[in-house]
Design goal:
alpha/beta, TIM Barrel, 10 helices, binds the ligand O=c1ccn([C@@H]2O[C@H](COP(=O)(O)O)[C@@H](O)[C@H]2O)c(=O)[nH]1
Length: 234
């Protein structure tokens, strides 16, 4: 099975996260550990998730000076995670330092992904930050910079997927949060797409948290979405 869905484990406590993943099938999805859960559970939690045969996207979005980010991604590589990320807006030197830091891990290195513009941000909010170019142009520029610095792909909205695949290349990995089944609550996400639209746009990995976790039957919701998108190969 092509495990394109990455379930966001946005729980406060490690035991809640482990209880939840014990209902899931590691052949069906990967899981994402973000700032809240990693702060609570740390490396022991990552080991407990690995012991359950799940691949982990460590979503800590490192954004700091090059030396600090390089050390942080190397520490993530030591944990044996499948994917780790940094902010593309950390700039060229930071991105290159992150890449260089995981080179020694060879085939065991995690996929290194850069966040372009958070999916919770709108074009208006980006302007407020002083970014004058249109949002899609800014996302594309950050994706191109990330590719030039040797990163494996980016986090973006599925709304930008076609543009990035066309301009940067089909092999450049796109990881997209902000996935919402038709008619479901958007919460704090601004740039959303349905799972079907995201796959049709060329997305590689769909990050989904609340639409799965908060559904009445998370296992059934995940299975239904996985089945629907598995027929939409790209
Ligand atoms: O641009 C970004 C980067 C990361 N995220 C993370 O993805 C999940 C989305 O959860 P939902 O409940 O499906 O909204 C969450 O862990 C974010 O920290 C993102 O949403 N956007």
């Amino acid at each position: 099975m092509n495990k394109r869905i990455v379930v966001a484990l946005d729980f406060a406590q490690p035991n809640e996260a482990l209880k939840f993943i014990d209902t899931l099938d590691p052949q069906q999805c990967r899981v994402k550990v973000g700032k809240e859960l990693f702060t609570a559970g740390g490396p022991d939690l990552i080991a407990a998730i690995h012991a359950r045969n799940f691949e982990v996207f460590l979503d800590l979005k490192f954004h700091d000076i090059p030396n600090t980010v390089a050390k942080a991604v190397a520490a993530a590589a030591e944990l044996g995670v499948w994917m780790v990320n940094v902010h593309a807006s950390g700039g060229e030197a930071m991105l290159k330092a992150a890449r260089a830091a995981i080179e020694p891990y060879g085939e065991k290195a995690p996929l290194l992904i850069a966040v372009t513009v958070l999916t919770s941000m709108s074009a208006e909010e980006l302007k407020q930050l002083g970014v004058q170019r249109p949002l899609q142009e800014h996302v594309l520029a950050l994706a191109k910079l990330s590719a030039q610095c040797g990163l494996d792909g980016v986090v973006c909205s599925a709304q930008e997927a076609e543009l990035i695949k066309t301009e940067v290349g089909r092999d450049f990995i796109l990881v997209t949060p902000g996935i919402r089944p038709a008619g479901s609550a958007t919460h704090d996400q601004q740039r959303i797409m349905t799972p079907q639209q995201a796959v049709a746009a060329g997305v590689d990995y769909l990050v989904m948290g609340r639409p799965i976790r908060e559904s009445k039957n998370p296992v059934a919701t995940l299975s239904a979405i996985a089945d629907e998108i598995s027929s939409l190969a790209h």
